[in-house]
Write a structure and sequence with these properties.
Two copies of one chain form a homodimer. Chain A is an all-alpha fold and 195 residues long. Helix content of chain A is 74%, strand content 0%. The N and C termini of chain A lie far apart (45 Å). The structure holds a DNA duplex (30 and 30 nucleotides).
DNA sequence: ACGAGACTACCAACTAGTAGGTAGATTATG
DNA sequence: CATAATCTACCTACTAGTTGGTAGTCTCGT
C-alpha cells in the first residue's frame, strides 16, 4: 500500500525541515541536493522553481491538515478532548523535535517578503485552521462543554494565536517543555470543572 | 537634545525594517545601501559584518524595551492598565504599520538558523519581557486587580505567547485589526469586572 | 595633518536557474 | 516480436546575478 521511495517526496520533506528551521530564505537548492544525495539540477527537474517547490509543499501541508483534522474528529468527538488532543499533538512534535515548528507559522512571519504564490497558500492554511477551531469551539460552547467569553470565532483566533506564540517561546528559550506549560492554563480556561 | 542625522542609526533603522519584513536572511547590505543612499562598502565601515549589525540592532532593541517599560510603569502604575497599555501600544504599531511585527519575535522564529551571537540577544529579549510581565501580573494578582488561574510566570508566558501569535495572525490575514480582536478577550479574562 | 566617513574597485562563494546530454524504462507501431 | 519514439530521472557544465566582505583611495571638517 505504501508507495515506493519517491525523490519528489524526499525533496519536499527536506524542504519542509529547512523551512521549519530557517524559513523561505534560509535554504537553497544546494542544501536540499546535499542532504538527499542528488545534484542541484535534478531538483529543478521535479520543481522548476523554488516557488513551485514551496507552493507544492504548503499546499500538501494544508491537505494533510484537512485530512488529519477530519480523522481527529472521527476518533475524538468531544470538543474539550479535541482541543486537548490538538495541543498535545504539537506538544509531542516539539518535544521529540520531529516537527519543532509549524511550516505555515514560520512562513507567515515572513509573509511580506514571500512570493505571492506562496503567501496565498499560507493564508489558506490559517483560514482553514481558524475555521476548524471555530467549529469545535462553537459546538463545545453549545453543549456547555466549553466556557467562552467572546464569540467562537474570536476564541478560536485567540487559541490559535496562543498555540503559535507558545511554539515561538519554546524555540526562543530552547525549552521544548515551554509549549505544554503555556497551553495547560489556556486549555483550563476553556474547559470547565478541572483544576 | 536630539542628535544630528547619524548614518549608523540610519543603517540600524533600515535593518530593523528589513528584519521585521523578512527576517535575518530576507535582506542584504545592498538592500540597506540602496534605501539609505550610500554604497555597500560604507556600511561595512560602521558594521564590519552582518552579525555585528544585527547584534547591535537587537541589543539596542532590548535596551529600548527596558527603558520603555520603566517609563510605562512610571506613567501607568496599575497592573490592569499596564497590560492594556502594552497591548494597545502594539495594536497601534500594527495598525499604522510603523512597527508591524516585533523584531525579536521575527528572529526567534528562525532561531535555529541564526548566528549564535544574535540568538543569545534574542533569547535575552524574551527573558526580559517575560520577566517584566511576570512582575506586573504578580503585583496585579496580589492586589486582586487581576484574576489568574496559574502561577504568575506561567500566566505571563501565556500572555506573551498570545501577543506574538496575534501579531502573526494579523500578518497572515493581512488584517491589522486582528491583533486587537484577539487581545481584547485575552485581557478581559485577566481583568475582572468588565464585560 | 589627521581621522572619520565616504568612495571605487575588487573578490570568492553562493544563488536560482538553464543548456544539453545520457541511461534506462515504457509505450506505440509495423 | 522487434524496433522506434517517447518519457523519466538524473547528470555535467554553465549562466547571470547576488552574497558578505576586503583593499586602497578620496574628501572634508576640525
Amino acid at each position: 500500500m505504501n508507495k515506493p521511495s519517491n525523490t519528489a517526496d524526499d525533496i519536499l520533506a527536506a524542504g519542509r525541515r529547512f523551512i521549519v528551521a530557517g524559513g523561505y530564505n534560509g535554504f537553497s537548492y544546494a542544501d536540499i541536493a546535499e542532504v538527499i544525495g542528488i545534484r542541484k539540477a535534478s531538483i529543478h527537474h521535479h520543481f522548476p522553481s523554488k516557488v513551485d517547490l514551496v507552493q507544492t509543499l504548503v499546499r500538501r501541508y494544508l491537505e494533510d491538515a484537512v485530512t488529519g483534522m477530519a480523522e481527529l474528529e472521527r476518533n475524538v468527538p468531544e470538543p474539550p478532548e479535541l482541543l486537548r488532543t490538538y495541543a498535545g499533538f504539537w506538544a509531542r512534535c516539539i518535544e521529540d523535535a520531529s516537527r519543532p515548528f509549524c511550516v505555515c507559522a514560520m512562513l507567515a512571519s515572513e509573509l511580506p517578503a514571500l512570493p505571492p504564490e506562496v503567501a496565498v497558500e499560507v493564508r489558506a492554511y490559517f483560514q482553514f485552521l481558524s475555521g476548524w477551531l471555530t467549529g469545535v469551539i462553537e459546538r463545545g460552547a453549545g453543549q456547555g462543554a466549553l466556557t467562552i467569553s467572546a464569540a467562537p470565532r474570536v476564541e478560536a483566533e485567540a487559541f490559535m494565536a496562543t498555540v503559535h506564540g507558545a511554539m515561538l517561546s519554546a524555540r526562543a528559550y530552547g525549552d521544548t517543555a515551554a509549549f505544554a506549560t503555556i497551553m495547560t492554563p489556556t486549555l483550563q480556561k476553556l474547559i470547565p470543572g478541572i483544576q
